[in-house]
Each structure stands twice: as structure tokens, then as C-alpha cells.
Amino acid sequence: MCFPPLSLDPVRHVAVCPSDLQQLWKEVAATQPVEDSIKQEGLDLTTNTSNSTSFSAAKVSPPISHHSLPNGQSAMLTPRRDSSSSHEENPGSHPLYGHGECKWPGCETLCEDLGQFVKHLNTEHALDDRSTAQCRVQMQVVQQLEIQLAKESERLQAMMAHLHMRPSEPKPFSQPLNLVSSATLSKSTSDTFPDGLPHPPTSATAPITPLRQGPSVISSSTLQTMGAIRRRNPEKFCPPISSELAQNHEFYKNTDVRPPFTYASLIRQAILETPDRQLTLNEIYNWFTRMFAYFRRNTATWKNAVRHNLSLHKCFVRVENVKGAVWTVDEVEYQKRRPPKMTGPALPLPPQCCCHLLSVHLLQAALAESNFPLLNSPTMINTSSTSGMLHIGHDDVSSTVEQVNSNGSNSPRLSPQQYSHQVHVKEEPAEAEDDSRPISLMATTNQNVTIPEDRDLEEELPVEDLS
DNA sequence: GCGGATTTAAACATTG
DNA sequence: CCAATGTTTAAATCCG
């Protein structure tokens, strides 16, 4: 089975990094129907899925079924919906129609009424290669979200267990999503190497390539034909590396996805995470491999890049130590590297830049669609993911690292409000996953997000005024 | 189109 | 000598 190059690759390599889904959609949406068309009757959306991901979810997820909608549209929706969708049972509404707009991923076309929408659906989202590809992507999205949800659920369970808080019911939010067994999922994603390193789920398979490159379509075919691939622009709009890392730590650790950060920022992060603010080259290497599944292969390449960056950037200072040389970060220099570009009025953020905001948004959307009220509370969705966004305005300086503001060179950044404006998620000002978060989590489960008083000054930023 | 930033590759030097 | 470390150059690409 061959798929159109442009549509296939985004699917196969769908990063489903929480951050890239929207962009993914854009790209797939932009994909032209390809000559190597898939015969309509022969569409096998599952094939690619199982090939494209080594997550067990791919196997466990039931094969997709092709529902025929009254309008003749083949609704190859994600497995989770089966027949339980309240939308489908409700005449006068459509699962892909809401708030006056088409909910087809990446579409958002305004439709005044259902009739118009149906017409739009039939014309714009008919059964063709593009729609098929989008459908596959959606499957991937859902699977990833399910996996992530399962993991977060498990984490929550563990947290609550640790704090002697019994959840009202076991695995409260696993069922509605047609989740793959949480046990299976968590197993598949939390396997560890003998050395304790997490087992990259995608192990020997092609890496999941983050499609964060902006508008340009980076399909794997493109990747293969292109020489040096830019994975740039990570810090410009995306959340700070520290919070992004904190929130998607497990993701990057377990998924063979290239982290959307520059080598320089990663190196710096590695160094700043240490108490001494200094690391040997080898320790930097270790940090990379420890933190990112992606860096557990192609070592020669990225290690070379690391060394290159260390030498190239003035912000990295080599210090002779008793036991050899260590590398430190000259924060002033680092800040200099990036001139203040974010001044001025609130920038409309491209969707792909709202990394975990997006992930939360997507999760929410997915969960909302699944009519799972509890999880519609942002605080219940990967609390660590919803959190930390308040750090966005602080660049990627780890919250554990004192911001070097004294030099006055800290450039203006997007304010948290600006970020949160993009996605209607109310953040909880939390960052790491290992502090007292569960308490506040419980406190906020019932609805509103309250700012725990134990937050540092970073959380003093106003958080309301969210769209 | 230009220039800065980034990535990748590679050659070379230094060091233990 | 070898591997690790460090420096430098060059090319390709992205993006403002």
C-alpha cells in the first residue's frame, strides 16, 4: 500500500508532539490530492497507523469503520466515537459542526447552518486522498492523546495514591475515550531499558519528526531528500524550553521525536539544570540521551553538533576545572544572542507555536468531544501541561534558575496573556510535576483554577483576561 | 535578495 | 595510536 508522499509522511512521522498537531493539520490540509490515489473502497486507514507507530495503541485500537453518513459522506472517524457519539444521535447537529463552523481539522470554515455545513462537508471534505490523509492524521492524534491521557491519568493516580487521596473512582477518565487499556499503554510507553532509560517506543523505526518548521511542509520524503533540515524557530513563539520540557518531559523521553529546541538552548538547559551550572561535555551528552529518546541514536551527528555549538556560541564558556574542563553558560551572552523581537503589540501566534497550549487545547477538544466533563477542566488535563505556561514570558530560563534580569537585557517577551489568548485554556500556574501540585490540583478540580500561593514570582503575572 | 541563526558535515588540532 | 574533546570552515536552509 502506498500513500501519497506528501500525505503519507506527515502521518507516518506524525509527531503528535503535543505541539505540532495543528501544524500537522495545516500541512495535511495543504496536501494536494496525489496521483497515486487510494481507491476509495480500498482505503485502509489502519495500515499506515500500525506501521507508523510502534505504540501499542496502534495495535489495540480497533480498526476504523467507515460509517456512512446520511449525506453519503464517509465518516471515518476515530475509533473512539463508534456509536456513542451524542452528536450523531442528535439530529440537527453534526459532530463536525459546532459554533457555526466546520470542525474538520484545519478547516474552520464558517457555515451558517447545518445545511450549509453539510454542503460544505460534501464539497470540501469529500472522500478523497486529502481527507483520507487527514483522517489518518486524526487517528494518530487521537492515539497519541489517548496515550498521553493514559499516562497522565496514571501519574495522577500515583500522585493521589502517594498523597493518600483516593480518587473517586479508579481510572475515572479512561473509559469514555475508548482508551486502549491504560495498563497496556503505560506499559508500552514506560518500558525502561535495563539502565533505567526509558524505552523509546519508536525504537528502530523512523523517528517522529516534529513538524514545527513552520509553514513549510516537512514530510519525511522531504527530510530524506533535503540535506540539512532546519528545526528552527523553536524558541521564538514556543514556550520556554524549561516548561516545555517539564511538561512534555515524558514525551520527549519516550518518543523518538526531535525536541523543538536548538542545540544551544538544550545545552544551556542541561547546564542550568545542574546545581553547579556546569557540565562536562560527556555530561551534556548524557543529559541529551537521558532527556530525549531522539538523541539516543545518530550520536555522531548530534554530538558533533553539540560540540560545534559549544565552540561556536560565546555564551558557552569552557572552564578548566580540577578534574578537566567543564562548560558553563554565560547568561548575558546567551540573552544577547536573541535580540528583542517580541516587542510591540500582541503577536498573533501561529498555531504551531502554541506548543503545549495547543496540546492542551487538543486534548480538551478531544475530551470535550468525548463528553467527558471532568476532563474538560483544563486542570485535569495533564496538569503539568496546562501549567508552566506562565513561564512563557520568561524565556526559557528554567524556573529553577534565577533569571538573569540584573543585566537589564532580558528582552520583552510575549506575555502569558498573549499566549493564553490564543487558546482558550486557563492555565494553572504550576510547572514541575513533582512539587505540591496534586494539592492544588485537587483544589481546582471542581472548576476554577486558583493560583496556589506557593508559586514564585513568575506566577504573579495576571492570568485572567483570558479571551 | 540579504543577512543572521541554525543545523549538519567535515577536517583538523589537542589532549589524555 | 586511539578516542574524546575542541575549533574551525563550509554548505544548506529557514526566517525576518
TrEMBL record:
Record localization: Nucleus
A Pfam family recorded for this sequence: Forkhead
Skewed-composition ranges (Basic and acidic residues): 79-91
MF-aspect GO terms: DNA-binding transcription repressor activity, RNA polymerase II-specific; RNA polymerase II cis-regulatory region sequence-specific DNA binding; zinc ion binding
GO CC list: nucleus
DNA-binding region: 258-331
Originating species: Chelydra serpentina
Region feature (Disordered): 40-94, 187-216, 400-467
InterPro entries given in the database record: FH_FOXP4 (IPR047414), Fork_head_dom (IPR001766), FOXP (IPR050998), FOXP-CC (IPR032354), TF_fork_head_CS_2 (IPR030456), WH-like_DNA-bd_sf (IPR036388), WH_DNA-bd_sf (IPR036390)
Keyword Zinc-finger assigned: yes
Compositional bias segments (type: Acidic residues): 455-467
Full protein name: Fork-head domain-containing protein
Phylogenetic classification of the source organism: Eukaryota, Metazoa, Chordata, Craniata, Vertebrata
Fork-head domain span: 258-331
Highest taxon listed in the record's lineage: Eukaryota
